[in-house]
Amino acid sequence: MARNEMNIAFEILLEEVESVVNELNNEGARAFGSGDYDKASGVIQQATRLTDFRERVRGLQREWKTVFAPAAPRRRKRRRKVGPRLARGLRTPEDAFRTPILEALVELGGSADINKVLDLLGTKMEGTLNKYDRQRMPSDPTLVRWRNTAQWCRVVLVEEGLLQPDSPRGLWEISPEGRRALQARSQAATAV
User: Fold this and answer.
1) Cα separations (Å) of 14 from 55, 88, 180?
2) Nearest-angstrom CA–CA distance, 99 and 77
């Protein structure tokens, strides 16, 4: 897995952990508000374990970055302040990227370099992407959030067999099953 893909994977994992922490906070507040203190205590214990897990993941992310650090000492950069995590539901969900990714790959002849796919995807989804999707990732200012989401969606499409799992690094390729799924979706849309 490429360095940038690992950074994306860490970001996605941390975003998901953060959303679960937020859900637990809401659940705990409801339990406390209704007087169910046993449940509130259990939720607090879960949230504590999850925040410990989140810190371990952040530590692994930092460790991963040092794996590729140059051997020569570098000047320390000023640590930038990372803003708060994006609240759940503000970015376009991964599912919205599924069909446009498959369509883009078909338009590109069935396979293409990741950047060509993402460039065409950005054009196809221009009206769907919102201001949050166009923001930079807090942990990697070189990465735009919607591109991160699209790359995560690609992982899911590979797991579902809609994209080829054995494509060379940096190349996205639609599978025969992906073509069938896209054709079925197109036929269902025209039937309505």
Assistant:
1) 9, 12, 34
2) 41
**110 alpha carbon, distance to own chain's centre:** 23
Identify any residues that bridge with 173 across adjacent strands, giving them in sequence order: 111
Phi, psi (rounded to 5 degrees) for 139: -90, -15
Cβ atoms of 24 and 47 within 8 Å: the answer is yes
Angle at alpha carbon of residue 152, lines to 15 and 110, rounded to 5°: 170
Q: Are 163 and 172 in contact (CB under 8 A)?
A: yes
Query: Would you give per-residue pLDDT tens digits along the chain (192 residues)?
Result: 456 677 778 788 888 877 787 787 778 778 878 888 888 888 888 888 888 888 888 888 788 777 765 554 555 665 555 566 777 888 888 889 999 999 999 999 999 999 999 999 999 999 999 998 898 888 778 889 999 899 999 999 999 999 999 988 889 999 999 999 999 988 888 877
**DSSP code at position 77:** P
Q: Backbone phi, then psi, for 119, in 5-degree steps?
A: -65, -45
Q: CB of 108 within 8 A of CB of 120?
A: yes
Distance CA 116, CA 100 (A): 13
Closest CA to 27 of 47, 13, 50: 47
